[in-house]
Write a structure and sequence with these properties.
The protein has four helices and three strands. The chain is an alpha+beta fold. Among the domains are: 30 residues, no CATH class; 31 residues, no CATH class. The chain has a three-stranded antiparallel sheet, with no helix packed on it. It binds heme C. The site of heme C has 6 residues, from helix 2.
């Protein structure tokens, strides 16, 4: 009887608390580089214009350097196809 009660009670508690738990979860919005630069000024200065900085840019006509006009590239036995769908840049690894 006790075991049966526990088996019913524990899932019931989770079911009842689940919405409250989900509401209390912290959100982690993207804060962007300017927030980090407030404290990390030297790192931010070194990062500006680096390959990593440029790689984080939004993909558009000005920032994408590769040829995405239905081209492909094979490296280490893996072929990747580059194409466009509307304004999106698509890479398919095969
Ligand atoms: C309010 C000030 C502040 C802000 C804003 C801040 N940091 Fe920091 N960060 C620090 C301090 C202080 C340290 C510890 C430095 C130390 O131990 O020498 C640190 C350490 C770090 C480290 C570890 C460095 C190491 O050598 O181990 C990284 C990585 C880092 N921060 C990244 C970021 C990023 C990414 C952001 C933005 C999302 C950010 N920080 C925003 C103050 C800040």
């Amino acid at each position: 009887m006790l075991i049966r009660s526990i088996c019913v009670l524990i899932p019931a508690v989770f079911i009842l608390l689940k919405p409250a738990l989900a509401e209390n979860l912290p959100t982690s919005p993207y804060v962007g580089e300017k927030v980090c630069a407030n404290c990390h000024q030297e790192q931010s200065r070194q990062w500006q214009g680096s390959h990593h900085d440029l790689a984080m840019q939004h993909a558009n006509e000005e920032t994408v350097l590769a040829d995405f006009s239905d081209t492909s590239l094979t490296h280490d036995g893996v072929t990747s196809k580059f194409s466009r769908q509307g304004g999106k840049f698509i890479v398919n690894g095969i």
